[in-house]
Amino acid sequence: MIEQSLLLTDAYELSMLEAYRAHGMAEIAVFELFFRKLPPERGFLLAAGLEQAVEFLQNLRFGAEELDWLAASGLFAPDFVASLAEFRFTGDVDAVPEGTVVFADEPVLRVIAPLPQAQLVETRLLNLVHFQTVIATKAARVVLAAPGKQLVDFGLRRAHGAEAGLLAARASYLAGFGGTATLQASRDFGIPAIGTMAHSYVQAHDDEAAAFEYFARVRPRVLTLLIDTYNTERGARIVAALAPRLAAEGVTVGAVRLDSGDLAAHARAVRAILDDAGQPNIRIFASGGLDEYSVQALCNADAPIEGFGVGTALTTSSDVPALDCAYKLQEYAGTPRRKRSEGKATWPGRKQVYRRYAPDGTILSDTVALLDELVAGEPLLQPAMRGGLPVPSLTGLAEARTRAAASLAQLPPPLRRLEKADVPVEISPGLRALAARLDRDNAA
Question: Which GO terms fall under molecular function for this chain's record (predicted)?
Fold first, then answer.
């Protein structure tokens, strides 16, 4: 379903592998994936993408066509290319389970493997975990803005490529959306497929009422009619008149969809038309350039809208399309390593994140500590792979969706209201001491 070619990487990954091989550098390395900082528009992130990351690592290998291309490219020595035929991932992975709220400076995934293996997977792991975390976080904000509302992913047509559209559907469902308009996402991930109709369908008919009636007879189940092609209120009156006749034939109009104009004002007018016609059970569904802020505004205004389709802003995470995400070496051959670049220094060694909760169950603070430190709190990173294979306890999308709902409920109230708030992320004394020691050794 998703492209797994090992050529889907940066050229310098293979260049480094060739140099590692030439110098016999294949001892165990520890890399950690983390988000350096959060942008002003985000107070939390929702971890996602682990299932695809594990799938990638488990199936990691160079195919014959890829090896032939590498050999013909002249980019690498023939003996190095030949050695790639047996390349496999045999290492361990620990990760924060999908659907867990995370913050800056916290490792969300750790790879422990021979250096060439751990190095080669950098680009694709970042690609998979970063993208789904970006979209899951955006979707979570929409979920928080519209509690109890039906939310549907409408974003494939504006997604930055087919894989992005599929993984955005997965990430948004993980975060709490109820369905997707993308059929392949429904097939691949078991997400409910939800669709209505387009304006072109209505325009293709000479009469709007006939368009609604013909569609209803062919698509009688979960019927939603798009009523704003010409005039929203007129469309609502047509549906109000048509609904009793369809009901007599066993066809129920479930909802009408609004896609343009002042959605709150139109929704109130449409609600009044439908209620006056004795159709209080026909729901109102809205779409059209929505994001968490516009959805929240409609909910705060008590607009009579029961569901929302969110597209472009979701699938592109238009306000924050990228995060400062990194995958860095923290240990090699048993020795902790620390990057000291200005503004990009890392915390060395193998680490764990410990979460503490307030008496009301909300997240109080996190502590990033070395694995051998004794720190109070719930450890977040859990085993995901051992010896190149997924651990039996690794959960899938359904469990991640349940976890996300629980994790979002643990956010402090300001973050649930989409306000800016900080959850303290503390760096343990042991970790600070190790970093200081490495800095002194490096300076000497």
Answer: glycosyltransferase activity; nicotinate phosphoribosyltransferase activity
Digit-coded pLDDT (tens) for 24-44: 999 999 999 999 999 999 999
Q: Is residue 3 part of a domain?
A: no
Q: Using the structure block, give the residue that is written with the tokens 């361990």.
A: 92
Mean pLDDT of 7-16: 96
Please provide the DSSP assignment of 218-281 as one string. Answer: H--TTEEEE--SS-HHHHHHHHHHHHHHHHHTT--EEEEEE-SS-HHHHHHHHHHHHHHTT-TT
- Dihedrals φ, ψ of 343, to 5°? 80, 0
CA 294 to chain centroid = 21
pLDDT at residue 2 tops 70: no
d(CA 67, CA 81): 7
- Among 298, 315, 332, the domain-final residue is 315
What is the C-alpha to C-alpha distance for residues 336 and 316, in angstroms, rounded to an integer?
A: 37
Task: Indicate whether 150 and 296 sit together in one domain.
Answer: yes
Total count of domains within the chain:
2
323-354 per-position pLDDT tens digit: 999 999 999 999 999 999 988 999 999 999 99
Beta carbons within 8 Å of 349's beta carbon, 6+ residues apart: 30, 330, 331, 336, 370, 371, 431, 434
Give the residue from 211, 133, 207 showing the smallest Cα distance to 170. 133
Q: What would the two tokens of residue 23 be?
A: 């110098």
Same domain, 58 and 88: yes
Contact 381, 352 (CB under 8 A): yes
404: Cβ contacts below 8 Å, ≥ 6 apart: 46, 98, 99, 100, 136, 140, 174, 175, 176
Query: CA 6 to CA 57: how far, in whole Å?
Result: 10
Containing structural domain, residue 181: 145-315
- Asked if 41 and 317 count as a contact pair (C-beta separation under 8 A), the reply is no
- Average pLDDT value for residue range 91-99: 98
For the chain, percent of residues with pLDDT exceeding 70: 99
**Does the model's pTM come out above 0.90?**
yes
